[in-house]
Amino acid sequence: MQSLTAEIQSFSRSRLRKQCTRVTSLSGRRIIETWKGSTITVVEDPVPTERILGYVSHILNVAFGVENVFPDLFIYKTVSILDHPDADVLLHLTDVCSFIQQAHS
Fold first, then answer.
1. Cα(95)–Cα(90) distance, rounded to whole angstroms?
2. GO molecular-function annotation terms (predicted)?
3. pTM of the complete model
């Protein structure tokens, strides 16, 4: 097994995968951030928000402490649960499945 020092010395930036982050501000403005070398490039998303709204109607928010940002635009189902091995997700399965079936119809 290679030592940590040797692994760090043999590291190559070219082996890193390209990263792209989509950010939606509270006002609805969408931007795309991409890293190129040691600089960051920010590009505003050219797709108007109105065009994509027809594709998404329901959002399943399965997180603890994450609020529903656009309640007037989407139908939310919030399951406030911690990302922890002891969390019993099966307690919410029936409600979540009903919500997904509602979204499909």
1. 10
2. JUN kinase phosphatase activity
3. 0.50
Q: Which pair of tokens denotes residue 66?
A: 């994450």
| CA angle, residues 66, 71, 74, in degrees to nearest 5 | 105
The whole-angstrom separation of Cα 68 and Cα 74 is 9
Domain carrying residue 89: 56-105
Task: Please count the structural domains in the chain.
Answer: 2
pLDDT tens for 53-97 read 567 889 999 988 888 988 998 999 999 988 888 889 899 999 999
Contact at 8 Å (CB) between 35 and 19? yes
Q: What phi-psi label fits residue 65: left (phi over 0), alpha (psi between -120 and 50 degrees) or beta?
A: left
Q: Are residue 26 and residue 62 in the same domain, yes or no?
A: no
Contact (Cβ atoms closer than 8 angstroms) between residue 18 and residue 32: no
Q: Rounded to whole angstroms, how far apart are CA atoms 74 and 81?
A: 21
